[in-house]
Amino acid sequence: MTVTTLSEHACFDGVVRFLEHQSSELGVGAKLGVFLPQEALSGKVVPVIHVLAGLTANYETFLIKSNIIRFAAQHGIGVVAPDTSPRNTGIEGEDKDYDLGSGAGFYVDATAEPWSKHYRMESYVGKELPLLTESLFPFDATRRGIIGHSMGGMGALIQALRYPERWKTVSVFAPICAPSRIPWGKKAFDAYFGGDLQKWEEYDPTILLENGYKPPSTILLDQGLKDQYLADLKPDALVAAAQQTGQRLQVRTHEAYDHGYWFIQSFIHDHIEHHVKGLKG
Amino acid sequence: MTVTTLSEHACFDGVVRFLEHQSSELGVGAKLGVFLPQEALSGKVVPVIHVLAGLTANYETFLIKSNIIRFAAQHGIGVVAPDTSPRNTGIEGEDKDYDLGSGAGFYVDATAEPWSKHYRMESYVGKELPLLTESLFPFDATRRGIIGHSMGGMGALIQALRYPERWKTVSVFAPICAPSRIPWGKKAFDAYFGGDLQKWEEYDPTILLENGYKPPSTILLDQGLKDQYLADLKPDALVAAAQQTGQRLQVRTHEAYDHGYWFIQSFIHDHIEHHVKGLKG
């Protein structure tokens, strides 16, 4: 296993490091960002939060725009930030649309051609990446949190609901809650799963809740009410499913806020507090 | 005077707003970013900090990557972020190099053809932009601070030294301190001033200090010692000039830190405290 350091940067007494490795799940080289707090640099085993970004973002976006590192450093928590899709797979048309292919892996394992060989983001972010980063750094496999935004919020919900044994804490900003009912999700699921409607259900957070899947702990969900994509995100569907099945979901709405990182940076502090309580409490 | 709102985003109970206006100094449309803290939205007159970014950045970069808004909001301070050059002036070759023309205005008023008609960033950031933003928002013209990074650090130093009556507080991250002695500066000054060596002296912060120019208050300067551009920034030259002339310069060096926004976000809090002391103390 060869891991190349692309760059590293001191930040809040710790280090932000960008890495590249050959991913076995994705079958291509994959880049990621990691934050190592001061404690981890001196060998202490620390909790870790994985962050899944939204459409068009990459492995740097959430780290540089969300203000997360300030608070991860304060609490001595590592951060892992994967890319939002495989890149340069050679699949025809992968760079054509912003909402399919490159930058739009939707954190699922594709089963339909031509995507199925490389577009295995669910297994990558849920299995390969935690194992890789925990082999490289003193991150505690029993104290993993996951945060996601938009498409990445959907990815974080899928991870938390389908694999609650992998994650201890989960929080999301403006997640895609019911992908099988909206244009983005329909387009992606149609491409990645083809006619297999069973798969559509397995990757729809609202349907997962309806079908009895349980998160490892209370999900914190922040949603701006001036979000330009609100109709496509459908937080109400997720709330209804959680109420119906008695699952733990704490939703906070914010009157004036929209979809981007200005919103995320305004509330990231509360999210880190939420994870700290679960990971260090 | 027509000012167009390009977008606005709630952030920390205030608003980040992106604007475009026809600049009389630049002779083209110019974009900028503004942060209005909650207090300003309810009409209270607040202090304001202008931020000048470095090469290749634009009017959004410093706002989204530096974490400045968190602390500006905490202290009820406005922020104004101009672009780093005029854009789309039609000057031949303006987009050719990263360090000349677009994204590289160096915050000077060019005097040589073909740049002199549009490349008037000194007058733009020092006169037109404060007047414009103070006519639009309740920003206090008697309580202006200025922060700059790299090329923008040079711009902030030029403003503070040549026009101390305009600014009350100044701080810089990894500024270009002696442009007339380094490749970036020589290339830019040669293009923007041609053979006029008098101009070279007027826009070199170290020479300005040597020639008796005085800042309005103590300059705070942070510099990382792993900065990949350290040899081109020459903070030692500025320090020597300040010592020689007894000018107020507080320099802090940081062993592990490099040139980018990971460095800036690690220390922005201290910079805002520095400005708060001078603007609100």
UniProtKB/TrEMBL annotation, chains A, B:
Q: What is its EC number?
A: 3.1.2.12
Matching InterPro entries: AB_hydrolase_fold (IPR029058), Esterase-like (IPR000801), S-formylglutathione_hydrol (IPR014186)
- Active-site residues (renumbered): 150 (charge relay system), 227 (charge relay system), 259 (charge relay system)
Which reaction is catalysed here? Answer: S-formylglutathione + H2O = formate + glutathione + H(+)
GO CC annotations?
A: cytosol
Q: Looking at the record's lineage, which domain of life comes first?
A: Bacteria
Top EC category: hydrolase
Q: What GO molecular functions are on record for this protein?
A: carboxylic ester hydrolase activity; S-formylglutathione hydrolase activity
| Keywords, in A-Z order | Hydrolase, Serine esterase
Q: What biological-process terms (Gene Ontology) are attached?
A: formaldehyde catabolic process
Query: What family is reported?
Result: Belongs to the esterase D family.
Q: What does this protein do?
A: Serine hydrolase involved in the detoxification of formaldehyde.
Q: What is this protein called?
A: S-formylglutathione hydrolase
- Species: Swingsia samuiensis
Q: Which gene encodes it?
A: fghA
